[in-house]
Write a structure and sequence with these properties.
997 residues; alpha+beta; six-stranded mixed β-sheet; 34 strands
């Protein structure tokens, strides 16, 4: 008898077919696990290097602990529900057909029953634990809460109960209800699968064990439901579904009492379920459950609706009056509007001679440089190399110059490695050679050169100017808003420099090289760390390159906002961080907010909508997240060192209970502002996003009388930005040095204006209010000026009919003289750009100031300030300088000298005399205009003939003629004032060297 041939060749052992799959699974798990470990361990290195390891440990241990608690609760509940139901299964079933079906299901399940009975609870536990861990902030606030010292007007409970206790209790009850429901469903399905629950012709059969199980589950659910009803009483004060936030008449008189009744009823029905489990009779719990459902519908829905419709609506103003008053008071307190100073401002529309004399200091500091338009000018004049860049929007700050505070437009020269030549964009250049930007560039806000360029206070490479030089401050920018994703820096002592530093300051010398000497990032010199960071950044070059040495550091997460958000995860960070030269360093100043959406009776605002304006829509500043809040405080000021990335958090609002609670959670991460240096103190400012939220609320909540608030007849809106083409975009607030009517001297302030309510995109564009936030905190170490943060609101009587920003812009656009001059400038294929429209309460009225920039065609062109528009009432002024425009506006004598009064390039005439008119300048102007007119006509003729070459030549002639006209006009002196204010009231600005040459 022959034997079958073996498929396995002689001498070869049989293969283990089952070993490959488990091996692949183990390898995959190991790879995924190591990648996870790499990301976690690199975070550990990052936090330890920065000195905020406490934050990482506390946050992650909290998340892990809460996850385990949530996982354990869900796992135990589901596991025992299934286990109890399984062990309570009957030995036999009374119905043979049903038994056969169940036996078939049971037979299929039996091989994996143990896995399912454990795996299913684990799966639900993972979901539950993850959901619970995401709420770690609520848990930590509950266990570290701080009292507010204020009580709510309904229950008399401390405000902290609503912000820190109620959210936690709601989280716990909601989570436990989910656990009971999931475990109950798992138990019911198990009972059904094993025959304890049967669907029969005569009804539903349930075994005794299943009845007890269901009774206990139902009782637990009802007890938790009752607790939820009880908490809903307090949550009514946080409601935001009506016309006004908080518990209103119907809530207080119908909803809150019925919630208490439903809570008690749910508890009673739960007791009936327990009794039914003992005595085995289900009629009472079934009747009780039906009554509870009916009661919840009638008492929880129908009854409040009846009260609202037939009692409140006919007399709403009277019945809701007290509750509207609560809403007004609590909203103003939650948003920091309760201490606002409101003054009546009887503005005049008459531009009288010498009207600006009392506002001489404000007039001298009026900002002419628009930080949103002059980025190109900074780039063309100060970029020096293509691998540098300036942000699209610059920042406004102030510095002391020659003993006086000077408004300043400032920016840092950041790195732009994307502009390195294409053939040099290798990994080494991107991450080892080009690592940092260089230097601060700053210009006077109120002055410009004769040819319209910024007048720099700090500029050049090497960095020089009134803010310091390379010997007095560290100019290198390793951490900024546009820094590369990561850079490798540092080297052993004596090693050759590899980093591109800056162009040489001497002609003919090459580029200078540099090696980072600070402590800016985790060490990446060891092989193990190289592997971890190669995985993190998915780069084999990082592992293999000789650019990484034993002393190398890796710099990443380099945006100031990102760094603050990581070390203070409980903060909402302002969308605009700004640089300042302080204490011999360049430091980014970042504002952080503590927020909540649980403040009782406070109106909720969506952060993204409230802070949206022409800046955020254009991408110049970062928009805040799309979340709702009804409480906000500027609790933290943070600094981020531009050289080494070190982050310092200061408790700015140290009385904020929410911040106090977080300080208990992270006791070493936030310093008191008493440790803030005087240099830093002098550059903090009132944050923009907080101001935007406050002005949005103030449009309604400047009204404190409930009857008027109910009528909504005095609602204001923030005016749309008249300088942008897109409609419906709000005007941003502006920083400027300004002396409000009740102040003795100017202060650096953040300002905005109000017009009547915008309805369906239209509104009367007259000015109703002007808001200013004092941003001067002083310059003394650890001492915050009492005036800082003071909000002042000027209310303008509607009958005065002061033009709003939209009307002022319309006057500029429609004025024949202005439009003719601007059209002439546009003829040379140049672009006329309207700068920011500033609103100033000076001269007893409202002054509007708008710089006008001219930008020619070409890749290297940049805007130059050529004209200044001013308006006061119905009168418009237009001149090459602000000083000249103000003199036009105020009858030849404004009473004060503007910051650019020295830009004529001539010696000012004696007071009371008429300056001689330069016949040569007048002739030059006329000749230049004639040349421009001839060039326009010749260009049009060439265009009609299709001769584009000739047309291009004529456009060049036109541009040259227009520049001649501008130069000639600048040599013609403005009319001298007829009377001179006293020297005390009107300081004379000293012509700058650039303006006098």
């Amino acid at each position: 008898m022959s034997r079958p041939t073996s498929p396995i060749p002689p001498g070869r052992p049989p293969s283990r077919r089952g070993a490959l799959t488990p091996t692949l699974i183990v390898v995959a798990i190991a790879v995924v696990g190591f990648i996870f470990f790499a990301n976690v361990w690199t975070d550990v290195l990052w936090y330890r290097q920065l000195g905020y390891f406490e934050v990482f440990v506390t946050e992650n241990l909290s998340r892990i602990g809460i996850f385990l608690a949530g996982f354990a609760l869900m796992f135990v509940a589901v596991f025992f529900a299934i286990r109890v139901a399984y062990h309570a299964r009957p030995v036999y079933a009374p119905d043979s057909e049903m038994r056969d079906n169940l036996n078939r299901y049971q037979a299929q399940l039996e091989p994996v029953r143990r896995v399912v009975m454990v795996g299913l609870p684990i799966l639900f536990g993972l979901f539950a634990g993850s959901a619970a861990a995401s709420q770690w902030q609520k848990v930590l606030l509950f266990f570290n809460q701080e009292p507010f010292g204020q009580s709510d007007p309904e229950f008399g409970l401390d405000i902290s109960f609503y912000l820190m206790t109620l959210p936690f209790l709601g989280l716990v009850t909601g989570f436990l209800i989910s656990v009971v429901v999931v475990a109950g469903i798992a138990g019911i399905l198990t009972h059904y699968l094993y025959g304890s629950i049967r669907l029969m012709e005569r009804g539903v059969f349930t075994s005794r064990a299943a009845q007890i199980h269901l009774a206990v589950t139902g009782a637990a659910f009802l007890i938790l439901l009752g607790a939820n009803f009880w908490l809903d009483r307090y949550a009514a004060l946080q409601g935001n579904g009506g016309r006004w936030a908080g518990a209103l008449y119907t809530d207080v008189n119908a909803v809150i009492p019925t919630k208490a009744i439903l809570a008690v009823a749910a508890g009673l029905v739960a007791i009936l379920f327990i009794v039914a489990a003992v005595i085995g009779r289900w009629r009472l719990p079934v009747i009780g459950t039906a009554m509870l459902i009916i009661t919840s519908i009638l008492a929880g829905g129908v009854y409040p609706w009846v009260i609202q419709q037939f009692q409140v609506r006919p007399s709403e103003q009277t019945l809701e009056k007290d509750f509207i008053q609560r809403n007004i008071e609590m909203t103003r307190a939650a948003y920091g509007l309760d201490q606002i100073q409101v003054d009546r401002y009887d503005a005049t529309n008459t531009a009288s001679t010498g009207a600006l004399a009392p506002d001489a200091q404000t007039t001298a500091n009026i900002r002419l440089l628009d930080p949103n338009l002059i980025s190109d000018a900074f780039s063309q004049l100060e970029q020096y190399r293509p691998y540098y860049q300036f942000p699209e929007a610059l920042n406004v700050d102030r510095y002391e110059v020659d003993g006086k505070i000077q408004d300043t437009v400032i920016a840092v020269r950041e790195l732009n490695p994307a502009n390195v030549a294409t053939n040099q964009q290798g990994w080494l250049n991107q991450h080892v050679v080009y690592t940092h930007g260089y230097g601060v560039v700053a210009a006077k806000g109120n002055k410009f050169t004769v040819d319209g360029k910024p007048e720099f206070l700090q500029s050049g490479i090497p960095s020089t100017g009134v803010l310091g030089d390379d010997s007095t401050y560290e100019p290198r920018i390793y951490f900024g808003e546009d820094s590369p994703e990561y850079s490798i820096v540092g080297a052993p002592s004596g090693s050759p420099h590899r980093e591109q530093d800056r162009p040489s300051g001497k002609e003919g010398d090459g580029e200078t090289q540099y090696t980072f000497t600070g402590n800016g990032g985790p060490n990446v010199g060891s092989f193990f760390n190289k592997v971890l960071y190669s995985i993190k950044f998915q780069s084999s070059d990082l592992l293999l390159s000789d650019g990484v040495n034993a002393e190398s550091q890796i710099l990443y997460d380099r945006s100031p906002r990102d760094r603050v958000e990581k070390v203070a995860p409980y903060l909402t960070v302002d969308g605009n961080s700004y640089p300042a030269v302080v204490d011999g360093r360049v430091k980014w100043i970042v504002d952080g907010y503590t927020t909540s959406q649980y403040y009782p009776y406070s109106q909720q605002e969506q952060l993204s909508a409230a802070t949206a304006d022409s800046q955020t829509t254009s991408g110049r500043t970062v928009a805040l997240p799309n979340s709702s809040v009804n409480y906000i405080r500027n609790s933290v000021k943070a600094t981020v060192d531009a050289y080494d990335g070190s982050v310092t958090l200061y408790a700015w609002d140290d009385q904020d209970p929410v911040l106090k609670a977080w300080q208990k959670v992270f006791p070493t991460s936030v310093k008191p502002y008493s440790e803030m240096s005087g240099d830093v103190m002098s550059h903090v400012r009132y944050p923009e996003d907080l101001f935007k939220v406050q002005r949005e609320l103030l449009g309604r909540y400047h009204v404190t009388e409930p009857v008027s608030f109910y009528k909504s007849d005095e609602v204001w809106s923030v005016p749309n930005d008249p300088t942008v083409d897109t409609e419906g975009i709000k005007q941003p607030p502006f920083y400027m040095s300004l002396q409000m009517p009740d102040q003795e001297k100017p202060a650096f302030q953040l300002t905005s204006s109000f017009i009547p309510q915008i309805v369906n995109g239209t509104a009367r564009n007259v000015l109703y209010g002007f808001l200013a936030a004092d941003s001067d905190a002083g310059n003394e170490k650890g001492v915050k000026a009492d005036s800082y943060g003071k909000l002042r609101l000027l209310q303008i009587p509607p009958e005065t009919q002061v033009p709003g920003p939209g009307q002022a812009q319309n006057k500029f656009n429609s004025d024949p003289t202005v439009s003719q001059a601007l059209n002439l400038l546009r003829q040379g294929a140049s672009e006329v750009l309207n700068g920011n429209l500033l609103t100033l309460p000076v001269g007893g009225g409202i002054l509007y100031v708008q710089p006008v920039y001219l930008k020619s065609t070409g890749e290297t062109s940049y805007p130059t300030l050529q004209r200044v528009l001013v308006a006061f009432g119905d009168k418009v002024g237009f001149a090459p300088t602000l000083d000249g425009a103000l003199k036009q506006l105020f009858g030849g004598d404004s009473g004060a000298a503007a910051g650019d009064s020295g830009n004529t390039g001539q010696t000012p005439p004696a007071p009371g005399t008429t300056p001689p008119v330069s016949a040569g300048a007048q002739a030059d102007l006329k000749a230049a205009l004639d040349e421009a007119n001839a060039a326009i006509k010749a260009g049009q003729a060439a265009l009609a003939a299709g001769d584009f070459a000739a047309y291009g030549e004529e456009q060049k002639k036109l541009a040259a003629a227009l520049q001649k006209a501008i130069d000639a006009e600048g040599k013609i002196p403005a009319p001298a004032p007829e009377a001179t204010p006293s020297p005390e009231a009107t300081p004379t600005a000293t012509p700058s060297p650039a303006a006098s040459n």
